[in-house]
Amino acid sequence: MTRALVTGAGIRLGRAMALYLARRGYDVAVHYATSQQPALETVAEVQALGRQSVALQADLLDEAQVASLLPRSAEALGGPITCLVNNASIFEYDNMQSATRQSWDRHMDSNLRAPFVLTQAMAGQGLKPETDANGEPVATGLIVNMVDMRVRKLTPEFMTYTIAKMGLWALTRTAAQALTPAIRVNAIGPGPTVKGHRQSEEHFQAQRSNTVLERGANPTDITAALGYFLDAHAVTGQLLCVDGGQHLGWQTPDVLGVE
Question: The organism sits in which domain of life (predicted)?
């Protein structure tokens, strides 16, 4: 039986991934912090697909609530969690001048500490690899961390958020080393996919059109990356930037006009 926990699964990309996993045959625990009604709607949609689902509230800034979330999910779904998607995130603006201890803690706790604790909990379930036709181990667990294409294209904007996501990318690689061969750990780095709360529609469309591919990503592109990781049994410790090539942007003032 395959069971998933997706954090922040009531809305936006978390919801898209929860429904995708349900279509792939997973029972899904839908975590939410404050979006109770959207989470319940996601649960209903998962159940309509013939899978078990439950909505579980937890504040990812509260260590005790984070520590209990995966065990609660496993208990509610009737067995160990085999796919963990660390999607929930706080994304608030600061820079070197405006960053405070509070903004540091909010970004570190939500984007790095919570995924670390959830990873520890998943590892503590005692998952064992299976064996394929060649007699080689096949991981039965998968963790997918939602990073950000910013880790490939650093700027001093959104500074503590970016530092936390850099830490999550480091966690992806080191956890992949630590948890082999039972659990694979990979990351997805979205670019302009869903309009941000602070963005105007004009700004969002301009951001999408100014990527290398002159387009952004859609939620189906994100779920396609998730599906690749589900199926790619020899892949661990990797990052897929699903961003229209935004992380490859090179036409900066220092190179413009250079032949």
Answer: Bacteria
* CA-closest candidate to residue 79, choices 132, 22, 149, 29: 29
Q: 3-class SS at 185?
A: strand
Two tokens, residue 39: 């989470």
Contact status, residue 66 vs residue 127, Cβ threshold 8 Å: no
Specify the amino acid at residue 68: S
How far apart CA 157 and CA 203 sit, in angstroms, is: 17
Given this model, what pLDDT does residue 256 score? 65
Task: Using 70 as the pLDDT threshold, list the residues of the chain that sit under it.
Answer: 255-259
pLDDT computed for residue 36 by the predictor: 96
Strand pairing report for 3-6 and 83-86? parallel
Q: How many CB atoms lie within 10 A of CB 181?
A: 15
Dig out the tokens for 235 from the structure.
Answer: 């892949």
197-229 burial: b if 16+ Cβ within 10 Å, else e? eeeeeeebeebbeebeeeebbebebbbebbbeb
